[in-house]
Design brief:
Elements (H helix, E strand, L loop, with lengths): L10 H10 L7 E6 L3 H4 L10 H20 L3 E7 L3 E2 L3 E2 L5 H7 L39 E6 L10 H7 L4 E7 L1 H14 L3 E10 L4 H14 L2 E3 L1 H20 L1
Parallel strand pairs: 1-2, 1-6, 2-5, 6-7, 7-8
Antiparallel strand pairs: 3-4
Length: about 250
């Protein structure tokens, strides 16, 4: 029997929290989560987001990063890269749930009715691990390319890099809203970073229902969910405050 659940209206609380948020560009990093060809290039992706969502997310993130870099915000790209282990296959097969899911027929795997394969997904040396070119400034951006699980902090040096850069606010974009972005948001909160997710710059291959769930969960429990335009305004205000501070 299907059950319909009404989303609790926390718009007033969320609005008040947005008003309280300040962004200092020098203490902020945008962390892009798995914005690589394995998810966002429909021509080759092994775990693809819907083509229209790829276009939406890439274009919005291009604008976001250009604006952020101009303001002095750090940009860090975190990318899943799998080894192939003899006798096992892709490293992801060490996870029991993923291993069993991989045994399902293709249409029953991660993405309903679409191609999705763990064994070929982001294997080291493949084009799938390439960051979407328009999002990557190799002269300025940082890359963490040993992500193995949903959480960008697990067994990577992401936190180490953030601490070196003296970051206090972590701004998340990427794929998938309800898995890697959500897990990373929880971990950033646990490490006492302020957490911001840009709603225009995230998507889920699992479906709109889980995408909406994740944004609701973040906005009500973990951090701030802002549009690209809202973040731009916060960035502008933060930059102006810094200038005033220097003048004084």
């Amino acid at each position: 029997m299907a059950t319909t659940v009404e989303i609790v209206d926390r718009s007033e609380m969320i609005g008040k929290m947005k008003a309280l948020l300040g962004i200092n560009p020098q203490e902020t990093a945008i962390v892009t989560v798995d914005m690589h060809r394995g998810h966002l290039d429909p021509a080759v992706a092994t775990m693809p987001v819907a083509p229209q969502e790829c276009e939406r997310v890439i274009r919005a993130t291009e604008r976001l990063l250009a604006n952020a870099r101009a303001a002095g915000v750090h940009v860090i790209h975190v990318v899943t890269v799998q080894r192939v282990i003899p006798g096992l296959g892709a490293e992801g097969r060490a996870c029991p749930f993923w291993a069993k899911l991989s045994q399902m027929v293709e249409s029953d795997r991660w993405i309903p009715g679409k191609k999705s394969t763990l064994d070929e997904h982001n294997v080291e040396g493949s084009i799938l691990t390439q960051i979407i070119p328009s999002l990557y400034d190799k002269e300025r951006d940082y890359v963490v390319d040993n992500k193995k699980r949903l959480n960008c902090f697990t067994n990577t040096d992401l936190e180490h890099l953030l601490r070196i850069l003296r970051v206090k606010t972590v701004v998340l974009t990427g794929i998938n809203t309800n898995t890697c972005v959500l897990n990373t948001a929880f971990s950033a909160l646990d490490r006492d970073f302020a957490v911001v997710v840009i709603s225009d710059c995230v998507a889920s291959m699992y479906g709109d229902d889980l995408h909406v769930f994740a944004l609701q969960n973040i906005a009500r429990c973990i951090g701030w969910v802002l549009t690209e335009d809202e973040f731009a305004e916060k960035l502008k205000a933060g930059a102006a405050s810094e200038l005033v501070g220097v003048a004084v």
